[in-house]
Structure formats: C-alpha cells, structure tokens
Amino acid sequence: MQEVALHLLVLLAGLPALEANDPEDKNSPFYYDWYSLRVGGLICAGVLCAIGIIVLMSGKCKCKFSQKPR
C-alpha cells in the first residue's frame, strides 16, 4: 500500500512540472530563468563552503573531542 501511495504522490508532484517546461509568456511573474538560478545557487554554495573551510582552518573554533559525556 505504501508503494502505491508513493507512486501516486510522485505522479501528482510531477504533473505541474510537465507544463512548466515551456512557458508561453516570458513576462509572467511565474517565469523563471532556470540557468541563472542554478548558477547563482552554485556560486552561493561555493562561497558558503569556502567560508566554512576558512572558519575551520582559522583555529577560532575550539572543538574538544576528549570530553566525557555527563
């Protein structure tokens, strides 16, 4: 029963995506430039990753692994 429900959920979630691939009106507020959105997301992820590595390597984060649980 769970498998049937999962397939139905995937089918219902995928139906709006079928029409969204070919927008008719590019001036519509629901038209997205997917390429720019993807590039912006990758740049944001890269910057956040670099900041995380810099913070870990800076030595400001004092993590003590030898602490015993209470």
UniProtKB/TrEMBL annotation:
PANTHER family: FXYD DOMAIN-CONTAINING ION TRANSPORT REGULATOR 3, SODIUM/POTASSIUM-TRANSPORTING ATPASE SUBUNIT GAMMA. The chain crosses the membrane at residues 36-58. It comes from Erinaceus europaeus. Its main location: membrane. This is FXYD domain-containing ion transport regulator. The keyword Transport applies. It is found in: Membrane. CDD domains: FXYD3-like.
